[in-house]
Fold this protein.
Amino acid sequence: MKSNTEFPLIYYLFAIILGGLSILLAFSSPAGTIALLSLSTAAFLISQRSVNRFLWLAFFLAGLSLQMMVPRKIEPGGIEYTGYVTRGGTGFVEASEGKILINGNWRSLRDTVQIRLSKSNEELYTGQIIWAAGNMEVRSIFPLYVIDSVADGHFERFRLLSLPGRYSRDKLKKYGLLDTMAGSVFLGDRRSMESGTRNEVSNLGVAHLFAVSGLHIGMMYLFANYALSRFLLGRRTKLMLSVSLIFLYTMATGPSISAMRSFLMLAIYSFFKFIDYRQHPLNVLGLTGILMMLSQPSIIVSISFQLSFFATAMLLIFLPVFTEHNFMFQAFMTGVIAQIAVIPLSLNVFGTISVASIPLTILMVPLFIIPSYIGVISLMIFDALNFGPICDFLAGALKQLSRIFEISTETISGLIPAMRLEGVGAYLVSLSLLFCVFFSLWHFGHKP
């Protein structure tokens, strides 16, 4: 059966996600399983109008199988672990593709493990190999495994992967920007911000601005593309160099799940552009999600994964409808669509809705986010050129901008509290909006 839509892979991504969530809820919440199976049935009935029903069911079963392969019966207690650092940081890191020593036997553990380092001020970077000994806890959220290390060590294996992160953090430290809003925007890491500011950012619903995602990757891509266009390079050469530079930036940021999603989307889109084979953006998003699920099945329980993909899918579905309107209207609708997309997950996980999220997103992107991003990039370029006075001026300006941001968030947070919605109300709103996602896919896949 031939597909009746330009983006069948997004349907298959939803199928694999629903299959995975079904098996997870079967162990933890029988009532939740019934509700999810009802949603899966509705999604299947809608999807079969556009894609091959047997392929949809095959991806649904693949989601079931992937989750059954994830080891969840590891007894908590004292263990030893060694693996590759996949997300660097200070005091906390994430590693995967490792091995774990339990009762004298080494076992393979491919899934992501979060490690609380024995030294809270120690920094590790992506690509390093870590060894840790301590107590392990098994959770129901991503990462499934958490090790509270009492002794650990690391060494370099892929220095090229750790170099961007090391270089970026060293430069931000040099100019006193690592724990500021500007540094957090560039690295996509709010952990270095003051706890009060971090909580206010979350309550106002603008935490997504500090997660490296399409906005950050897009700005970096435009900057790299503009810089490379100054040279006499062929289209394909410029494309490969741009993607390579974005890869280095992604590694410098950790990278987080949203950063990897954005980079993989760009890399896949660039590959199809390189071979002159046009693909619908929703197909690219679907392929990205499927690849991430295959490489890390437990990522399905990550709230970052869920928020990133639902928000991006909704934007790609609805934004083309508003392309004929002016820029301000499109910017407003971007905030509205993204906020609606994440409401179901935000309600179920955090129990809150921020009524200020949409207008604040529209204001903060041009006033704080873009200037901070451009400022940090300019600072690093001028530092490489050894223009000290210009670097000092930029660092001072970024510190003042960060201070204004902190004052603004503190003031607004006191004026506009977050709206709480729990229990049956949260459930009904979430289920209704999730159904709208699948109905939208069906409707926009069959425009007359």
Summary: Residues 8-69 form one domain. The mean pLDDT is 83. The chain has three domains: 8-69, 77-157, 164-435.
